[in-house]
Amino acid sequence: MSNEQRERCEKISPDCPPEDTIYGYVPNMGGNAFFGVIFGICTLVQVYFLIRYWRLWKGYTILVLLGSLLECCGYAGRILMSKNPWDGAATSIQFVLLMVGPSFLAAALYTTLRALVQYFEEQYTKLPAKLWTWPFVTADMLGFFSQCVGGVIASMTEKGPSLGTVGRVVMVFGVSFQAVVMAIAGILAADFALRMRRERGSVFRHLPKDLNIFLISLKVVFLLVLTRCIYRIPELAGGVGGHMMR
């Protein structure tokens, strides 16, 4: 189906089947509602934490709140698409928000790494505690804005086919840059943990239970966000409606 034909499609019909949408299917209502509710709950919890611990963790909490809110709204867009996969506004909302939401969660991870370095003692890291946040957050935001700019450019394909290619390249650069930055942060964090285990192995055996749970959650979130970044690279490189996006 040509772009002109797609622009005329407003709902599912014999001439506008779901197979010709950018995803090639109707998004599942139940699955997207589940994740939308999960991120909605996370958003409300972060609002509580923001009020309760404003002086202690406002930077981290604001970043997680924004990331959770964007994810929640993104899944709301997917829910609307489950009713009508040809809904242009819903498609744009979910595409952009689910693409940029994890950037704020990654930034929150970097602020946490700085706090952990300060908690466990800075002598075991190759990177000073003050450099654990702003360089990584700055780089992460650069990737974030690159994806946003790329998305805007890609949406202007009707003004010139080449703009779609340029936008796609910019988006791929943004998400690739984020993946590289996260990988570097992960390597440095792993090195810090190994040094701690080698020189102060007992410290990990006597951690408070809540901190231990938090560290496990931190690892899981880090791996999930990094996996998302890596998957997004070939997905965006294939273009909107490409094989991996379907």
Automatic annotation (TrEMBL):
Signal peptide annotation: none
Any matching Pfam family: RTA1
Key words, A-Z: Membrane, Transmembrane, Transmembrane helix
Topological relation to the membrane, as annotated: Multi-pass membrane protein
Membrane-spanning residues: 33-51, 63-81, 93-113, 134-157, 169-190, 211-233
Any single GO CC term annotated in Swiss-Prot or TrEMBL for this entry: fungal-type vacuole
InterPro entries: RTA1
Keyword hit for Transmembrane: yes
Subcellular location: Membrane
PANTHER family in UniProt: DOMAIN PROTEIN, PUTATIVE (AFU_ORTHOLOGUE AFUA_6G14140)-RELATED, PROTEIN RTA1-RELATED
Protein name: Sphingoid long-chain base transporter RSB1
